[in-house]
Automatic annotation (TrEMBL):
InterPro entries: Galactose-bd-like_sf. This is CBM-cenC domain-containing protein. It comes from the Bacteria. Residues 1-28 form the signal peptide. Keywords: Signal.
């Protein structure tokens, strides 16, 4: 049955469509439902895995911060076309050479002989004259004023000598006539002979450059001799996400409007007054091709509204808007910010930022808001308004990011007129001491009119402007301190000092005023033009106050500062295993690609140092709910860096970190091989890893989330560590911890009482449909089940023993998955995820590969979303958290094996292109849970909260009733040469009936034949067999159903269609006596009846309500869906059946392009009620004859007969 969430149907389609934006290869919807691809097609070879690992490696290198972490990163894609110069003939496409002086020569190297940094091509500039100035240049349009971009390129030099800039990259801001509209930004390199070095830094696009037309990037040789090569030029908008969820689709490029339900995922279209028109305009945009539009001919109020989950801090918000004839005596055009609790009640008054009326070209509307620090605060509602106005407004490029926490960072505010508010000057050293300067004329200001300065007449002087900040801190919180500066032409420093010249300094203070950690100090070279000085730092434990200092240290001359900022970009992901995971991926890539890449080695070492120093914890999480032992002092990893939230995620985060360390030691510290790690790093990681194992098995309670994949992953980490360290005792303990339990641990051999775990990890398995499998919250999960299978493959390969429980348990779980996995690779129904919702970057499916190879089961048909990592939004911290899976996918890779299975048993009917998986839980003992025919998937129907398939009838009181099929008789499974036949006996006291249901397939078509005998006199007004209907196998449209002359749009909230043949997507349905498809018309409960803000696809539905804030999004909240029925009668008056009378309903599924059909020969006892004495269903390949309760089935090709 296709779920029809009326209020969010387009949202579902949008999510599917959005996932397709990341695909590098296009797949037809008819071939791969939901826009997904079999994983064996995503990763057909081991090299295909390495290709993606290489892309991820590159993203990690670009995204790594100066302190080594992968948690703050440049978002969005690279806007430089042909960034690695791989496209072109005689010159690289999109680039041209430009000579400014002398006679430099230019080369476009199109082979790998010059050892390109990214790909096989690079560009060069050479000169024999020191007076030469030349560049490779590209021009970029669509760059947004007032936003921060991240620039990076790589260069290498050969005998390059210069007394000027030598090697530099220049970013220029130009109008349409190529005139400069703001000072260019330079990134200078080093002379000499150097291998690849990165030039990188932030580029602030001038906010006031209204006539900015384009930005030029020039890679230059400047007044130098020698040769410089360039490669891998990147410019990326640093749109810092507010938190893990943040605002989505802020550029409106991939938004589709559902006007029926007022949705444009993830936006809601809200009309408060009047009759405005809301649309996506493909002819207007500030950036890209589209914008959001609201227009009204009479006064109206409407908005594009989105819910965003933000931390309780201060944020900058901005959007671009354009107006045409806006008239209003009210707000007109505005951004509205509302603060909401979990029940959508207000926690604080709404904040408005008002724009202008009239007609204006694109204008930036910006402001600031603070999320209330109240317990009830849950989310922020952001609205882009046309407010009580007429006219038209367009919106584009909404941006929400953390605000500068420094007060008066622009120095424009001054109550005294002689010093800036909120800043203090101090000059502790000097003879004479430096003097303070406060400029108010604008002569020495980067922006505005005011700036601060320091003048010193001696290199003995040290002075600074400073401001304390006492906001809230998270342990390890990443922050950025930056400012603009310029110096006098004469500016000399005392070179004997450790730090001298222009400086930024950050002090970390405890409650008693003592230092909580070492100060962070950075220096910058003198410059007579405005430059930026910045540092990224992490907040040490125990800090209650930060002091931000702008200084002149031991220097003679003058320095001016302006536009100081202290910002706290949210960690892209809270999990503290991100950076060590990234280090593991880099280490593995280094190991597999020659063990000689110095850049990768350096990046890995920096990440490891950051993890050791900033992401390991020995002080208990404030939430000690899940600890057996307090104050153990052992190492562990927090899920939330700040420890402010539920600590239940610390267990898996620690297990993932243990696995990453094991991989680093395995591939970066092999005996007798080149070493990636320093000796100290190796020693420290070994000690931390041993401590993590003890914490997981002794300090923490066992498996606190009741997620078996996490417990198995813990064993993988321990066994890997034991193997790497050649520690037999640890290896044996890890194996025993899995098999039998270990005394003294949180999973001992014997029952500890009080509901504690015991008997080993494998004792967690549960019996499901004849198999012992690992579960997720007491049920199989369609997502995390593959994590469990993959970790089992790890353990099997570590011991390399097919008699081990690791192998045997893995084979049994693989058999279970193969049995329930549909013929087209669709897997539906799970405790936490209702579908395998992963893609090649976020699902662990290397276990499918290993056990496919070992067993011959076709586990590679599992569907996942294909992602082109190079173009996707996959960020370094995401890559880091998932690194283990990607590493093991390559390390374990084996050839895919198997073909589509054939089953005919209690749980599964499967043959070639047809599969039916039956629900064996509770009362629904014979209900098909998932049907797939010719690539089109079906699932259950829902009526008034009941799910399944069965009799759907209207009683004499005009009330509809749904009798979900249940079993009380015998299920029979018989096969012929060409057919598989299943019979299910069913009874129900309501309506007093016995039902015999038959499933018949030859691998190309599927019959579902239901015979119903009444055991007492009954009267009804309508009688149907409610059956499954297509899920969502078309990725770009709402599913439509046709009877050949009319089409029913399933997105609508009403309407029906009928006929003996209906077509939908890749399938044709033939029914007897008739088929009826009808939309759910329950206005109080269209489709998904879900509260809150968790509108997601069906694959995100939960079977288990124990999902915290997502508990509303479970099957229990889904009351009604659209209905596909095989109809027997539909009458305005009562229709009566005598006891013993019986009727039959027939449905045949076949490919939409086939000529398949069937004939029915009924012998009626009462033609008006369709009561029968005999029925024959026949096509050119089979014959089915029923005389209640006896059936004869004939396979015509083989002449085999089955009798019941």
């Amino acid at each position: 049955m296709m779920l029809q969430p009326k209020t969010i149907q387009k949202v579902l389609i949008f999510v599917v469509m959005l996932s397709l934006l990341f695909q590098g290869i296009s797949y037809a919807a008819a071939d791969y439902p939901h826009g997904k691809v079999p994983i064996k097609d995503i990763y057909p070879t081991q090299q295909s895995v390495m290709d993606n690992l290489t892309i991820q490696k590159d993203k990690l290198l670009v995204g790594q911060q100066p302190d080594g972490n992968f948690e703050d990163f440049p978002h969005n894609t690279n806007v430089v076309a042909n960034w690695n110069f791989e496209n072109g003939t005689s010159t690289p496409t999109g680039w041209l050479s430009q000579t400014y002086a002398g006679s430099p020569t230019y080369a476009y190297v199109t082979n790998d002989s010059a050892n390109a940094q990214a790909g096989k091509r690079l560009i060069q500039i050479s000169s024999s004259s020191a007076a030469s100035q030349g560049a490779w240049k590209t021009s970029l349009t669509g760059i947004l004023p007032g936003q921060n971009y991240y620039f990076s390129t790589y260069y290498k030099t050969n005998n390059l000598a210069s007394t000027d800039r030598g090697v530099t990259a220049r970013i220029s801001f130009l109008d349409a006539a190529n005139n400069s509209v703001a000072a260019s930004v330079y990134f200078d390199g080093k002379p000499g002979t150097q291998d690849w070095i990165e030039l990188k830094g932030d580029v602030e696009i001038p906010a006031l450059a209204a006539n900015l037309d384009h930005v030029d990037i020039e890679l230059l040789l400047w007044n130098a001799t020698g040769t410089v090569s360039f490669d891998a030029a990147r410019l990326m908008n640093r749109k810092i996400a507010a938190n893990k969820e943040g605002a989505k689709e802020t550029g409106f490029e991939n938004v589709t409007i559902d006007t029926t339900n007022n949705y444009a995922a993830p936006w809601r279209l809200v009309t408060s007054a009047g009759s405005p028109n809301v649309s996506i305009d493909a002819s207007q945009a500030k950036l890209g091709a589209k914008s959001a539009k609201i227009t009204a001919s009479s006064a109206a109020t409407a908005s594009w509204t989105q819910d965003v989950h933000l931390t309780k801090k201060t944020f900058n918000i901005s959007t671009w808007y354009k107006t045409s004839n806006i008239v209003s005596s009210d707000k007109g055009v505005a951004i509205g910010i509302r603060f909401k609790d979990a029940n959508n009640g207000d926690t604080a008054p709404e904040v408005f930022l008002n724009g202008s009326t009239g007609t204006k070209d694109w204008t930036r509307l910006a402001g600031q808001f603070t999320v209330p620090n109240v317990t009830a605060q849950d989310h922020v509602e952001i609205s882009l308004y046309l407010y009580n106005a007429t006219g038209t407004v367009w919106f584009d490029e909404l941006q929400v990011e953390y605000a500068n926490v420094l007060i008066n960072g622009s120095f424009e505010a001054s109550a005294s007129g002689t010093a800036p508010d909120s800043w203090t000057y101090s000059a502790p050293e000097g003879s004479p001491k430096p003097t303070k300067l406060y400029e108010v004329s604008g002569a020495n200001a980067n922006s505005g009119a005011y700036s601060v300065g320091i003048n010193s007449t001696s290199t003995t002087g040290r002075a600074y402007w400073y401001q304390p900040y006492t906001g809230t801190y998270r342990e390890g919180d990443g922050r950025v301190f930056k400012a603009k500066y310029k110096t006098s032409a004469v500016f000399n420093s005392d070179a004997t000092q450790t730090s001298s010249g222009v400086t930024l300094r950050v002090n970390f203070l405890k409650t008693d005023g003592t230092n909580a950690g070492n100060s962070v100090i950075v220096t910058a070279p003198p410059s007579t033009t405005w430059q930026e000085i910045s540092t990224v730092f992490s907040v040490p434990t125990g800090t209650v106050k930060i002091e931000a200092n702008l200084g002149l240290w031991y220097a003679e001359g003058t320095v001016w500062f302006d536009d100081a900022e202290l910002v706290a970009p949210r960690q892209g992901g809270d999990m503290t295993d991100n950076t060590i995971g990234g280090a593991a991926l880099l280490t593995y890539w280094w190991n597999q690609n020659g063990k000689s890449d110095a850049d990768v080695q350096k990046a890995a070492q920096k990440a490891i140092d950051f993890y050791i120093n900033k992401r390991t914890y020995t002080i208990d999480n404030p939430d000690t709910t899940y600890l057996r032992t307090l104050n153990s002092g052992g190492y562990y990893n927090r899920f939330y860096i700040d420890g402010e939230s539920d600590a239940i995620g610390d267990y898996p985060t620690t297990a993932w970190a243990l696995n990453s360390i094991g991989q680093i030691l395995k591939y970066g510290a092999e005996s007798g091989q080149p070493q990636l790690l320093t000796a100290q790093q190796k020693t420290t990681l070994e000690a931390i890893a041993r401590s993590l194992w003890r914490w997981l098995t002794r300090t923490s309670i066992y498996n606190p989330q009741n997620a078996d994949n996490q417990a198995i992953g813990t064993v993988v980490g321990g066994l890997t560590l034991g193997k790497v360290l050649n520690d037999t005792a640890l290896q044996n303990e890890a194996i025993a911890y899995y098999n039998t339990g270990v005394a003294g641990t949180n999973n001992p051999v014997n029952d500890p009482g009080n509901g504690g775990a015991f008997g080993g990890v494998r004792n967690d398995r549960i019996a499901v449909n004849g198999h012992m499998i690992f579960d997720e919250k007491e049920k199989f999960d369609a997502h995390y089940g593959f994590y469990a299978l993959s970790f089992l493959s790890d353990l099997y390969l570590l011991v390399n023993d097919k008699t081990s429980n690791f192998y045997l348990d893995g084979v049994e779980m693989a058999k279970y998955i193969d049995e329930r996995l549909s013929e087209n690779g669709w897997l539906y129904f799970g405790s936490r995820h209702d579908e395998s919702d992963g893609d090649e970057g976020n699902i662990t499916f290397y276990g499918n590969n290993v056990f496919s190879h070992e067993t011959g089961y076709d586990l590679g048909r599992l569907l996942a979303v294909r992602v082109n990592f190079a173009d996707s939004s996959y960020t370094p911290e995401v890559i880091g958290h998932r690194a283990h899976s990607n590493i093991e996918m390559h390390d374990h890779f084996k050839s895919w094996s198997g073909s589509k299975p054939s089953f005919n048993n209690e749980y599964s009917l499967s043959k070639n292109n047809v599969s039916v998986y039956f629900n064996k839980a509770g009362a629904n003992l014979a209900t098909p849970q998932a049907i797939s025919v010719q690539g089109t998937a079906f699932t259950e129907g829902a009526v008034a909260g009941s799910r399944g398939e069965g009799l759907y009838y209207k009683d004499t009181n005009n009330a509809w009733n749904f009798l979900v099929n249940s079993s009380s008789g015998t299920n029979k499974y018989v096969s012929t040469t060409n057919y598989q036949v299943r019979k299910v006996d069913k009874t129900n006291s309501a309506l007093s009936n016995t039902r015999n249901e038959y499933w018949v397939t030859n691998g190309d078509t599927l019959y579902n034949i239901m015979a119903v005998k009444f055991n007492a006199n009954v009267s009804v007004k309508a009688l149907n067999h409610l059956v499954g209907m297509p899920y969502m196998s078309s990725m770009n449209r709402i599913m439509n159903v046709s009877n050949g002359t009319a089409v029913l749009d399933l997105a609508q909230n009403s309407g029906s269609i009928s006929g003996t043949q209906l077509t939908m997507d890749s399938l044709k349905l033939n029914g007897w006596p008739n088929l009826v498809m009808e939309n759910n018309t329950d206005a109080s409960n269209f489709g998904f009846n879900v509260l809150g803000n968790y509108y997601k696809t069906i694959e995100k539905l939960r079977e288990n309500p124990d999902e915290g804030s997502k508990a509303n999004f479970t099957w229990g909240n889904i009351k009604n869906t659209d209905r596909l029925n095989v109809n027997v009668i539909d009458s305005a008056s009562n229709v009566s059946y005598a006891s013993g009378e019986w009727v039959v309903m027939v449905l045949k599924y076949s490919a939409s392009g086939s000529a398949e059909g069937f004939t029915v020969t009924p012998t009626y006892t009462n033609a008006s009620t369709k009561a029968l004495s005999n029925l024959i269903v026949e096509d050119n390949k089979m014959k089915f004859s029923l005389t209640w309760p006896n059936v004869t089935f004939t396979d015509k090709a083989s002449s085999e007969t089955i009798s019941y």
